[in-house]
Design a protein that fits this description.
Blueprint: H1 2-14, E1 17-22, H2 24-30, H3 36-50, H4 55-58, H5 66-82, H6 88-97, E2 102-106, H7 112-116, E3 123-125, E4 128-135, E5 144-145, H8 147-155, E6 177-181, H9 191-206, E7 212-217, H10 228-237, E8 242-246, E9 261-264, H11 268-271
Parallel strand pairs: 1-2, 1-7, 2-3, 7-8, 8-9
Antiparallel strand pairs: 4-5, 4-6
């Protein structure tokens, strides 16, 4: 493992540009836990009443009312977006690239890159952000910061329900608001989303023929079309590129890019 760490640092130091692609496996390696003790400590009632064992599955529950739904979602958002977990893995990753020419694309929605010090102008949260609301009908192309109302919901939750007057409503059409997460075709890609996308695409274009390192961290095969497959294609198109894949799960590398690839099947925590 020591050799792999040294090889990784050497590649990053010699790269003209670094593109970090991060999936759920990175936050998992950093210590984020959606199930287990964390879930039971905060949502024991969801287990006792409905049989859920993790925050992700419980979020899809058919709640009997918006008051009940937002009591759950407010606490879930707060725990995963606004609590300062101080995750050292993200901080170590930032130390590796902070003085380099980098950009981050991620499907994670927990805001941990910015909390660790990464430049907001070098981040593309393509799947949304727990910290943003949007109209559930997507009637207009705008998102809204939700920190104040989320904390207010939690402060006024009783018997696993929020007061009706705290249910967030769209200021345009009056429909209930929802969290800005890509879970259906009503996901709002607002002005900030498009600006981040343009910056990411410009970074790729500016560095497409240079010594570019595609550092993929914890990206599985549930949605490979967003990060994994594009990284592979861009590596194939550039003989100066290196594809670095770190994940404790299964890793598949196409024959066409094996000579340009470093695959490390290990816990990201042990490598970064």
């Amino acid at each position: 493992m020591k050799y792999m760490k040294e090889k990784l640092i050497e590649l990053l130091n010699n790269a003209d540009a670094i593109v970090i692609g991060a999936g759920a496996g990175l936050s998992s390696a950093a210590g984020f836990e959606y199930g287990g003790e964390t879930f039971l400590k905060n949502f024991q009632y969801m287990h006792d009443l409905y049989g859920y064992n993790d925050m992700y599955s419980a979020g899809f529950h058919s709640f009997t009312s918006l008051e009940e739904k937002w009591a759950y979602w407010a606490k879930m958002i707060y725990l995963n977006r606004y609590v300062d977990h101080g995750k050292e893995l993200y901080k170590r990753l930032f130390q590796l690239v902070k003085d380099k020419n980098y950009f981050v694309i991620t499907t994670n929605v927990d805001h941990q890159f910015q909390k660790a010090g990464f430049d907001k102008q070098r981040l593309f949260y393509m799947q949304g952000d727990y910290g943003l609301f949007q109209c559930s009908k997507a009637c207009h192309n705008k998102t809204y910061d939700n920190e104040e109302i989320i904390k207010n919901m939690i402060a006024h939750t009783e018997n696993h329900k929020i007061p009706s007057y705290l249910i967030p409503r769209c200021p345009v059409c009056g429909a209930p608001m929802t969290t800005n997460l890509r879970c259906d075709d009503l996901f709002v890609q607002d002005e900030g989303w498009y600006k981040a996308k343009q910056k990411y695409e410009a970074f790729i274009q500016e560095n497409k023929n240079k010594r570019i390192a595609f550092l993929e961290l914890g990206v599985g095969y549930s949605t490979p079309v967003w990060i994994k497959y594009p990284f592979m294609r861009m590596t194939l198109a550039n003989t100066n590129a290196t594809y670095i894949c770190i994940d404790k799960g299964y890793i598949y590398i196409p024959d066409e890019i094996k000579k340009q690839t470093i695959a490390i099947q290990a816990d990201i925590q042990d490598v970064i």
